[in-house]
Write a structure and sequence with these properties.
Blueprint lengths: L1 H9 L3 E2 L5 E2 L12 E4 L3 E7 L3 H6 L16 E5 L5 E11 L2 E7 H12 L8 E4 L3 E7 L20 E4 L2 E6 L5 E7 L3 H8 L4 E2 L2 H11 L35 H9 L5 E9 L9 E4 L4 E10 L5 E9 L8 E3 L2 E6 L10 H6 L1
Parallel strand pairs: 3-13
Antiparallel strand pairs: 1-2, 3-9, 4-7, 4-8, 5-6, 6-7, 9-12, 10-11, 11-12, 14-17, 14-19, 15-16, 15-18, 16-17, 18-19
Length: 346
């Protein structure tokens, strides 16, 4: 992994913190052409063994049977009180092996939590530090000569060829996640660079914001019910599977309509990026929400925001972060339950 990071630096990349990258030529404004982004803010936690599926079925909001090597469902891991410890995407890579794609800051805490139960099952948990994760933005045909697996045609689906796995994530422009051995990442990056410009992590984060997809970090853990980040609207909760940790609270909140805060996309005036958890207040100076994620916009005049806001607030409300105006935007999906069973059926 160190060789992979050194290669990114030699290619002009600069780490802004532990996980985010900046490239002077590509930057975070990719108006046209393809983008290539190191996704070092993600990690893979592996569950492997004869009992791996049974173990995960009792811990995740997804039905593990839906992870079939083609569909890669979203899921949440919750406390007994229904609050999310982490959210992830489940990838079935072989008959007894599953990968959990999640934010790097939560791989350790989730492994600790799951490790309390793992000894009772024939399976092992381990961090896959030997894997590299690369993001690609651009239409599938534009990568045709890049020696890749056939790229997935549907969001939250996967393809696999030898030791390279490809995922498709939603966005206004097609984007894909490659997972491959870190020992081969430098050569793969150089090949892909002939088809794309290296770009900042901020570009990927902005695509997540535009898609209304909220990845929890350590700063969010144990703070939200899955519905508060619209996880059921993205198919991340199966209400038809059996029990899992926190299931009773999550189901009660859904069927009794007890979710009083929801994820929203917004634009914030000014280029200074607010911090996670910064308060959102009404014109009457009442706290009505908080910043979930923020990144610089594609100009110097605004920031793109994911915010968790009281459901009593509508699009016409005057909202502020400090003295800066916050404007709500439309979500790209209906705010209603999407059963993963329907996705699999379709």
């Amino acid at each position: 992994m160190d060789d992979w990071l050194a290669h990114l630096k030699a290619a002009g990349g600069r780490q802004l913190n532990d996980h985010d990258w900046h490239f002077p030529e590509g930057g975070h404004r990719l108006a046209e052409g393809n983008g290539l982004i190191p996704l070092t803010h993600f990690r893979i936690l592996e569950c492997e063994g004869p009992d791996a599926a049974r173990f995960l079925q009792g811990q995740t909001s997804a039905n593990i049977d839906h992870a079939d090597g083609a569909f890669a469902p979203l899921t949440a891991f919750c406390t007994p009180k229904g609050r999310m410890i982490a959210n992830a995407e489940i990838l079935k890579v072989s008959a007894e092996r599953y990968w959990l794609l999640l934010d790097a800051s939560l791989a350790g805490p989730l492994a600790t939590q799951l490790g309390k139960y793992a000894p009772f099952y024939k399976m092992t948990l381990r961090h896959r530090e030997d894997l590299a994760i690369i993001g690609m933005i651009g239409e599938p045909e534009s990568w045709a000569d890049a020696d890749l697996p056939d790229l997935p045609r549907l969001d939250w689906h996967m393809t696999q060829q030898d030791d390279v796995l490809a995922l498709r994530h939603p966005a206004s422009r097609s984007r894909f996640v490659l997972i491959l051995p870190a020992s081969r990442a430098a050569a793969r990056w150089d090949t892909l660079s002939r088809h794309a410009k290296p770009a900042d992590t901020a570009l990927w984060r902005r695509a997540d914001i535009g898609a209304g997809v909220a990845w929890l970090t350590a700063e969010h853990s144990d703070a939200f019910l899955p519905q508060m980040i619209n996880w059921e609207a993205l198919g991340g909760i199966s209400f038809r599977k059996g029990c899992y940790t926190g299931q009773e609270v999550v189901a009660r909140a859904h069927f009794r309509g007890q979710v009083k805060r929801r994820l929203q996309i917004a634009t914030l005036e000014g280029a200074s990026v607010p911090a996670i958890g910064d308060e959102i207040r009404s014109a009457e100076d009442k706290r009505v929400g908080e910043i979930f994620q923020a990144t610089a916009g594609d100009d110097t005049k605004h920031c793109d925001i994911l915010a968790v806001i009281n459901t009593s607030v509508d699009g016409e409300s005057a909202l502020f972060v400090g003295d800066r105006k916050l404007t709500l935007r439309d979500l790209p999906y209906p705010l209603e339950r999407l059963d993963p069973e329907r996705i699999v059926g379709d």
